[in-house]
Specification:
This protein has 678 residues and is α/β, with parallel strands linked by helices. The protein folds into four domains: 8-96 and 191-276, P-loop containing nucleotide triphosphate hydrolases (Rossmann fold, 3-Layer(aba) Sandwich); 109-182, Arc Repressor Mutant, subunit A (Orthogonal Bundle), CATH 1.10.10; 314-379 and 551-677, P-loop containing nucleotide triphosphate hydrolases (Rossmann fold, 3-Layer(aba) Sandwich), CATH 3.40.50; 381-541, PCRA, domain 4, CATH 1.10.486. Helices cover 50% and strands 13% of the residues. The protein contains 31 helices and 19 strands. A seven-stranded parallel beta sheet has the order 11-12-10-13-14-9-17. It has a six-stranded parallel beta sheet with strand order 3-2-6-7-1-8. The relative contact order is 0.11.
Length: 678
């Protein structure tokens, strides 16, 4: 493996393998290249047993890319034995082996958002509080607690009047009890339960510490308390712990990420070595200088400054617009100009927004202008109702204690089991302390279950048991699922919906896609099981499942519409940042609550450093609010970019003159009037 392509800092990072190492990798500094070379160097040049190496990422996409690159450097045979995974995949693997220590069974279910919401809603109803709160709000509080490793006993107290916190405090203990009784965990449990496992069973912790002699964590600035604690425990024996990240790109504080983990690395890991990677291989000098000037205003950061050996490039374009529509036209005319005269592809352009509310007007105008676009961050494949219904059957096949999914499928498709019968079954389960499935299997013996419902329940039990046997038979997962969906009449149920024919056909295709996904899994996996498939889809990244893959969308020749948060890690030749105003960036909530704007500034920095060749900032004089024009103020971040790095540009009315000269409509009218006066 050659290391000739690496610059001095990158080479140092690859060769420094012993002891704690903080690799501060600025935007566009070749971080992925360094990480993959470092892993390959460990198992190749240093001849470390691949099973002693652990590399942790935040997304499946990043893990897949790392594995492919390492295989290209160190060979497929060695790479297959390296543990390269996300936090959640790593913890899931540990729990599948050792969760029985905590009183769970190994075939536990992993609850996604819809399962969690359904369970929380039921628990809130049990409390019978006149709260008017949404399950999402309660789940958010519980998730915050778990990410901080707070058990139900350690949760709270909350300030008087914090109705969400008070309700979460009541629900959290019952939520955890219910999950355990259903042999289920949620995403946050995956990490919290591993930390608890290590706390309560030191011999289990010692086993994993012994195994992983070299540990690397990517995007370390995004770690929360639970993730930090987990990695600190795993690295506790050998201390060969390398973290890669950039505190200037820490933008997920709202979901628990703690930039203090990277800022305090030297305090937390004695004798840590620090390497700064500041050479940028992505953007022009003007773009980098603008980014540096903005981010240097933050006080709590590791000092660094991006630089490039490349060209100075164009200045940052600043466009003052009348309103949102004018702003949209300014963007569209620039895209058309680039496509028609510079022969740029549509996909070379990205419109990055701070809020979802900004998206609608761009979608409307892009459609009207017949410009192809993709919106990143819409509803995902496995979040669709028809897909969740189909997958609920598969989940229950694997885990008969999973009552949330059992109740979802009990009368879907409709089979004559009404709400009254379902409630009676649930009450019987509670009083008898038998599982709901055990109660359903003897439903005919229960007083109050009429003959029609009893017949339907017996057919349901027979159908489930038959397909359970087929799934356990090994192999033929896709064909068994296809037969199951046909046997329950899923397609017929979807066709009963009053929606348009087009929507119905799309839903039917989505159910068929579940079968296709199973078939693909069978082809790829050496030992395919239904539980293995369900684990893979449960651990999918929120932005990449099924047919809505971010990668597939980005491959199309279409303008990219996405949030600033979603853009992290991506790059585009021409980036537009509309709404460069107070209230958008920084966001009004940050300003109104008097919160430190450091994270908003980091978000601005991320947006700026997505641009390779050209960056255009747009702001409006006024925007509609409740039908009336409301004046807007330019973002404070614009003043932080030196005037010498930016230039005012014409707004809408952008036209081509003599091939490449750009004039606004008002400029052209003034020119014509001047000529007439002569």
């Amino acid at each position: 493996m050659s290391l000739d392509s690496l610059n001095p800092q990158q080479l140092e990072a690859v060769l420094h393998t012993e002891g704690p190492l903080l690799l501060l990798a600025g935007a566009g500094s070749g971080k992925t290249n360094v990480v993959t070379h470092r892993v390959a160097h460990l198992v190749g040049s240093k001849c470390i047993d691949p099973e002693r190496v652990l590399a942790v990422t935040f997304t499946n996409k990043a893990a897949k890319e790392m594995r492919e690159r390492v295989a290209g450097l160190a060979g497929k045979t060695k790479t297959e034995r390296i543990q390269i995974s996300t936090f959640h995949s790593l913890c899931c693997r540990i729990l599948r082996a050792d969760i029985e220590h905590l009183g769970y069974k190994r075939n536990f279910s992993i609850y996604g958002a819809s399962d969690q919401q359904r369970l929380i809603r039921d628990l809130m109803n049990d409390i019978k509080a006149d709260h008017g709160l949404k399950p999402d709000a309660i789940l958010w509080k519980i998730s915050e607690a778990k990410n901080s490793l707070k058990s139900p006993k350690e949760f709270g107290p909350f300030m008087r009047g914090d109705v969400i916190g008070e309700m979460a405090q009541k629900v959290y203990p019952e939520y955890q009890k219910s999950l355990k009784s259903y042999n289920a965990v949620d995403f946050d449990d995956l990490i919290m339960l591993v930390v608890r496992l290590f706390d309560e069973f030191p011999e289990v912790q010692a086993r994993y510490q012994d195994r992983f002699q070299y540990i690397m964590v990517d995007e370390y600035q995004d770690t929360n308390t639970a993730q930090f604690t987990l990695m600190q425990r795993l690295a506790g024996k050998w201390n060969n712990f390398c973290v890669v990240g950039d505190d200037d790109q820490s933008i997920y504080g709202w979901r628990g990420a703690d930039p203090g983990n990277i800022l305090d690395f030297e305090k937390n890991f004695a004798g840590a070595h620090v390497i700064k990677m500041e050479q940028n291989y992505r953007s022009t000098a003007n773009i980098l200088n603008a980014a540096n000037k903005v981010i240097e205003r933050n006080q709590k950061r590791k000092e660094k400054a991006l630089w490039t050996a490349g060209a100075e490039g164009e200045k940052i374009g600043v466009v003052k617009c009348i309103d949102a529509e004018d702003e949209t036209r300014a963007v569209i005319e620039r895209i058309n100009h680039n496509v028609r005269t510079k022969k740029m592809a549509y996909k070379s352009h990205a419109i990055l927004m701070r809020t979802n509310a900004q998206t609608m007007v761009f979608e409307q105008e892009l459609r009207f202008a017949e410009i192809p676009y993709v919106l990143i961050g819409g509803q995902q494949f496995f979040d669709r109702k028809e897909v969740k219904d189909a997958v609920a059957y598969l989940r229950f096949m694997v885990n008969p204690y999973d009552e949330v999914n059992l109740l979802r499928i009990l009368n879907y498709p409709r089979r004559g089991i009404g709400r009254t019968s379902a409630d009676l079954l649930i009450r019987t389960s509670v009083t008898s302390k038998d599982s709901l499935w055990q109660v359903i299997r003897r439903a005919r013996m229960i007083d109050g279950i009429n003959a029609k419902a009893a017949d339907a329940l017996e057919k349901f039990v027979s159908l489930i048991e038959q397909h359970k046997r087929w799934f356990r038979g090994g192999g033929q997962l896709a064909s068994t699922a296809k037969e199951l969906f046909a046997a329950i009449g899923l397609e017929d149920e979807l066709r009963r919906d009053p929606d348009s024919r087009e929507k119905i056909e799309r839903r039917i295709e989505n159910v068929q896609e579940v079968v296709n996904a199973l078939a693909s899994y069978e082809e790829r996996d050496g030992k395919p099981t239904l539980s293995g498939f369900l684990e893979k889809i449960a651990l999918l990244d929120r932005d990449e499942p099924g047919t809505d893959s971010k990668e597939k969308k980005l491959a199309k020749d279409a303008v990219v519409l996405m949030s600033l948060h979603s853009s992290k890690g991506l790059e585009f030749p021409h980036v537009f940042l509309p709404g460069f105003e107070e209230g958008f960036l920084p966001h009004k909530k940050t300003v109104s609550e008097g919160v430190d704007v450091d994270e908003e500034r980091r978000l601005c920095y991320v947006g700026i450093t997505r641009a390779r060749e050209k960056l255009t900032l747009l702001h409006a004089d006024a925007r509609k609010k409740y039908g009336k024009d409301e004046p807007r103020e330019i973002s404070r971040f614009l003043a932080e970019i030196p005037e010498g790095l930016r230039q005012e540009e014409a707004r809408a009315g952008f036209h081509l003159v003599d091939g490449d000269e750009e004039l606004s409509m008002s400029d052209m009218l003034a020119k014509l009037m001047g000529e007439e006066a002569e």
